[in-house]
């Protein structure tokens, strides 16, 4: 390529030399003779010089022509050499091109083969996907059918459990009544035999009567040997010893609660329950009271308990579960905690307005210590929907705040001196309403109150309603009046009312005298009227 460029430059120079023109001489003027001679001489000299110049020029032209010829020869040789090189390079490129074409053809064949394999694999994949979809759909249908079967089985299981619980209660009730009847029949038979044999002149001693009655009962039990056990953590079994008066009384009370729709107006039952239900009868009494006030729906609890509520509710329940203690048993096993979580989840899913509020965990825990897991859920519903006023556990808690103000107002009427003193301990805080609100929030499930006293308050609360809680709040203040009057500020008042021994079993009889006698008259209409006033003032 460089040689070709040089040759091109030389050809261009030759064309420039050929195209150059000699300069035109200037026009001549008229001259004298001497001037003519001088001009002749000069012209001859010029001609000689011009001839010599022309000769030199011609010689130069000859030399340039010769050089041009040699350059052209050289350029022709170089161009022929360049052509040879180009032909050689072209041949090499042709060979490379043919080689590349062969390679491209081979790669095309490979691509074609891979494409055919890819199409085959795509076809196989489509077939596999269709088979997989068909298999997945079959599995889904099987899973759905299994779920439906499980739901049906769960519903049937719940129905059987419910039926079993009802039958157990009926059997226990019948067994208790049978023992009472056997006891009475045996006693009458013993008296009849005594009068018949001894003419009524001799009375059996109390010990002999009891031994005779026990023998009748043992014989009767041998004929009807059957035991009933409750599978829950609490035991609902028929007593093995001879039934006493308490057994007969509570069996009749439970039967009356179940069958008599006017039981709230029964003063005898009210007075009996205010003294506290015996622990062995408490589960059955609580369930009988609950069944009369709320409707149970089969299968509702299982669906709600297995559904996760809102994330905020789940986190709050998870935080409160480890802090919830069992009041009747020291054992707080993972199984019990899981039951408590399910009950709280079910309630949060059922009652969206409340969801979850601190205090419900204690109520649910207390319910689980006496009732079945599903019954504990309905127990929470009974407390929040029926027994307590509205908005006790809502977001603004207007109901419980109104009851706190209500207790402060009633205390000012029932114990004006104490109320005025407590107001003077803190001018910026209604300490009566504050403390009462804390008690009402957990319904006296508090470490400062002995659990046996709490349970007796709950017995009356389930039977009579929210008015019992108001009575007991006022009674606690009045019972501790002497201690509270010695307090000079609110911190001392709180120390008295939050002590671990605020209410003990030995104090129950005296405090309940304040609750049910000293603060009378205390009608339900009066409480409702004051509550409406407090709600308006909020």
Describe the structure.
The chain is an all-alpha fold and 538 residues long. The protein has a domain at 388-537: Cyclin A, domain 1, CATH 1.10.472.80. It is 74% helix and 0% strand. It has helices spanning 2-18, 33-198, 206-223, 245-259, 267-274, 282-293, 300-305, 311-320, 334-350, 360-368, 373-387, 398-414, 416-425, 431-442, 451-464, 467-479, 481-485, 490-497, 508-518, 524-537. α12 (398-414) crosses α16 (467-479). The longest helix has 166 residues, at 33-198. It is elongated. The two termini are 106 Å apart. Mean pLDDT is 77; it is low at 14-42 and 197-242.
**CATH architecture designation of one domain:** Orthogonal Bundle
Quaternary structure type: single chain
Count the E strands: 0
Distance between the first and last residues' Cα: 106 Å
How much helix, percentage-wise, in residues? over 70%
The CATH homologous superfamily of one domain corresponds to: Ypt/Rab-GAP domain of gyp1p, domain 3
- pLDDT < 50 stretches: 14-42, 197-242
Series of secondary-structure elements, N-terminal to C-terminal? HHHHHHHHHHHHHHHHHHHH
Biggest sheet, open or closed, and with what strands and sense?
Answer: none
CATH fold assignment of one domain: Cyclin A, domain 1
Would you tell me the overall average pLDDT? Answer: 77
> What is the rounded Rg?
58 Å
* Share of β-strand residues: under 5%
- From the spread of the alpha carbons, the general shape counts as elongated
Helices, by number, come to 20
CATH class of one domain equals Mainly Alpha
> Structural class of the secondary structure composition?
mainly alpha
Keywords: Coiled coil
GO molecular function: GTPase activator activity; small GTPase binding
InterPro entries: Rab-GAP-TBC_dom, Rab-GAP_TBC_sf, Rab_GAP_TBC_domain
Organism: Oikopleura dioica
């Amino acid at each position: 390529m460089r040689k070709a460029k040089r040759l091109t430059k030389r050809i261009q120079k030759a064309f420039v030399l050929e195209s150059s023109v000699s300069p035109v001489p200037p026009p001549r003027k008229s001259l004298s003779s001497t001037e003519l001679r001088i001009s002749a001489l000069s012209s001859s000299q010029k001609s000689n010089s011009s001839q010599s110049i022309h000769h030199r020029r011609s010689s130069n032209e000859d030399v340039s022509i010769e050089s041009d010829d040699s350059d052209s020869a050289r350029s022709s040789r170089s161009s022929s050499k360049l052509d040879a090189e180009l032909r050689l390079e072209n041949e090499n490129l042709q060979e490379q091109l043919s080689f590349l074409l062969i390679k491209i053809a081979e790669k095309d064949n490979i691509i074609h083969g891979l494409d055919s394999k890819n199409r085959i694999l795509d076809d196989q994949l489509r077939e596999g996907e269709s088979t997989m979809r068909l298999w997945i759909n079959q599995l889904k249908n099987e899973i759905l059918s299994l779920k439906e079967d499980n739901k049906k089985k769960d519903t049937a299981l719940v129905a059987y459990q419910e039926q079993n619980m009802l039958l157990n209660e009926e059997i226990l009730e019948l067994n208790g009544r049978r023992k009472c009847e056997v006891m009475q029949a045996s006693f009458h038979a013993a008296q009849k035999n005594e009068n018949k044999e001894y003419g009524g002149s001799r009375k059996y001693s109390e010990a002999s009567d009891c031994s005779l009655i026990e023998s009748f009962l043992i014989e009767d039990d041998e004929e009807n040997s059957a035991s009933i056990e409750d599978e829950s953590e609490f035991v609902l079994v028929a007593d093995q010893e001879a039934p006493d008066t308490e057994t007969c009384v509570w069996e009749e009370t439970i039967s009356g609660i179940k069958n008599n729709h006017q039981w709230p107006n029964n003063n005898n039952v009210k007075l009996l329950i205010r003294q506290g239900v015996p622990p062995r009868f408490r589960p059955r009494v609580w369930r009988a009271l609950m069944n009369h006030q709320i409707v149970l729906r089969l299968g509702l609890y299982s669906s709600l308990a297995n559904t996760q509520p809102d994330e905020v509710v789940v986190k709050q329940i998870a935080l409160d579960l480890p802090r919830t203690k069992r009041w009747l048993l020291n054992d707080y096993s993972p199984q019990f905690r899981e039951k408590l979580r399910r009950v709280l989840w079910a309630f949060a899913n059922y009652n969206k307005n409340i969801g979850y509020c601190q205090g419900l965990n204690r109520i649910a825990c207390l319910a689980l210590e006496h009732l079945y897991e599903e019954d504990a859920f309905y127990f929470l519903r009974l407390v929040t929907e029926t027994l307590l006023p509205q908005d006790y556990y809502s977001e603004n808690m207007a109901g419980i705040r109104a009851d706190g103000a209500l207790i402060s107002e009633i205390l000012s009427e029932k114990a004006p001196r104490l109320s005025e003193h407590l107001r003077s301990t803190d001018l910026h805080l209604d300490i009566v309403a504050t403390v009462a609100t804390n008690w009402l929030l957990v319904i006296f499930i508090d470490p400062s109150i002995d659990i046996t006293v709490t349970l007796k308050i709950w017995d009356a609360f389930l039977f009579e309603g929210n008015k019992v809680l108001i009575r007991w709040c006022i009674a606690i203040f009045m019972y501790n009046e002497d201690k509270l009057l010695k307090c000079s500020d609110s911190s001392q008042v709180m120390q008295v009312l939050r002590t671990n021994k605020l209410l003990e079993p030995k104090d129950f009889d005296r405090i309940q005298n304040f609750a049910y006698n000293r603060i009378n008259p205390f009608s339900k209409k009066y409480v409702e009227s004051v509550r409406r006033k407090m709600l308006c003032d909020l």
